[in-house]
Amino acid sequence: MRRRDFLNTGLHAAALTSVYSLIWNRREAAGCSMSTEPEESVVVIGAGVAGLAAARDLKSRGYRVIILEARNRIGGRVWTTKLGDQPVDLGAQWLEGVKDNPITGLCADFEIELAQTRYKNSAVYDDAGQRVDDRTRRRLSGEARRRLAETRKLNRQLVQTDQPDISMADALRKAGPGEGLTEQEQRIVDWAVSWWLEATEAEDARRLSLRHYWGETEGDSFGGGPRLFPGGYGQITDGLAKGLDIKLEHTVQVIEHNRAEVIVTTNQGVFRVDRAVVTLPLGVLKAATVKFVPPLPEQKRQAIGRLGMGVAHKVVLRFAEVFWPQDVEYFGYASGNRGQFVEWVNMYPYTGKPILSLWSQGDFARTLEKRPAEIVVKQAMGVVRTIFGAAAGDPVGTLVTRWGSDPFSRGAYSNLPLGSSYDDYDRLAEPVGDRLFFAGEATDRVHMATVHGAFLSGVREANRIAKMAG
Ligand SMILES: Cc1cc2nc3c(=O)[nH]c(=O)nc-3n(C[C@H](O)[C@H](O)[C@H](O)COP(=O)(O)OP(=O)(O)OC[C@H]3O[C@@H](n4cnc5c(N)ncnc54)[C@H](O)[C@@H]3O)c2cc1C
């Protein structure tokens, strides 16, 4: 087994402590000793990372906070469940860079083990299941990089000359197919582009904007490399939720606000409070299943319509034993079918358990969601056997996700399609009057689509409420 490098090995623990926990604990301690009058009441809608962060922050300031959550669990798009005895992440999985990431500090506070992971430690297989040799792979990766670099040049031209936006797929077409490649090689180049581009955005290139793919947050991720959570990302949401008043299975149906109060109607009763923080996912806002009275401002509704909600899909397979190269962390499958089982995470190096997590995205993921789980598993196993042959035994445990059709997420995370812009994230973040506030990954124009973005947005809105209250 590959040696695991854990975050707290050789690093100074004090430097990692979360500044947020420190502030929250200090405020709470000061509040206890001052025995202040109870402050305003706030309802936070949604117990995902954004909602939990907002509630923790507001509670530490003395607000009376209730979280209303539709599901029978907390965490939202952070969802750790079990496959046998092993925690498995069905939603967010990676800590995207440890340096200065607010989640890193929380890991130290909650004593969460992190495992270093290297995307480069990967093997790619062609559609016939043959492993692509290292030399060919380097050559074809170079070609994929060239194509992406061309799209970046096109982006600069487009911005400088103020031309209309085009899709990333059109930009890739303009970048050319590459000289003298066989059909098989072309598929491998397409796979590499898809892994870098479409898997990250959870969307097909034909929907993504060239102008914004190479936009203002390019290269934004924190340094220090990615990490995985051998015990699951849910440890973060469990830690954040401690001591909070969370009402599960409370589906919010109507949010009404006026000058004096906010009235939130759920399937289990009505809550009247001074203010509300809405962390409904972009997909839920798009579906308009929660009614706002009065309706949301036109600008906000348009921004909701313009931003994209991608779909990422996971099939998690547990086997009796490892039959794949156990030290290789990632496998790629260069199928001719766009978005199909593009990226596989080998969980063995991090957990010691024979588990593979197969990712698909975009329209292929949407198609998978429409099929019964056993068919999806059969389809995934077909590919596993194409690659690993008869050595691949039947899985002993399986999990299949449905983020796109889940009524409480309606997608995996936000992206920027043609016709949208970064300003739309700001429009989503804007409060409505001084009673209704908005947080969630799709309200952070810098860190959208991530756990840390959701966290920062929750703290941002808690600060905004505190400032507004004076
Ligand atoms: C498959 C997948 C993989 C991902 N991978 C990563 C990753 O590796 N790294 C990373 O940083 N990010 C990743 N993300 C993105 C990350 O999970 C999200 O950006 C983040 O968790 C969003 O948090 P949030 O609080 O904004 O929204 P959510 O977590 O969606 O929280 C919103 C909450 O509102 C609740 N809700 C919805 N409707 C109602 C209603 N009517 N009434 C009451 N409650 C309601 C929901 O149940 C949910 O709990 C991934 C997401 C997915 C789906």
**How is the largest sheet built, in terms of strand order?**
7-17-18-19-16-20
What name is given to the CATH topology of the domain at 13-80 and 98-116 and 226-309 and 414-469?
FAD/NAD(P)-binding domain
Bound ligand species = flavin-adenine dinucleotide
Extract low-pLDDT stretches: 1-15
What characteristic shape results from the CA principal axes?
globular
CATH superfamily label of the domain at 13-80 and 98-116 and 226-309 and 414-469: FAD/NAD(P)-binding domain
Portion in helices:
25-40%
CA distance, first residue to last residue = 56 Å
- CATH architectural group of the domain at 13-80 and 98-116 and 226-309 and 414-469: 3-Layer(bba) Sandwich
Mean of all residue-level pLDDT scores: 92
Individual helix count: 17
Largest sheet: 6 strands, mixed
Q: Which radius of gyration do the C-alpha atoms yield?
A: 23 Å
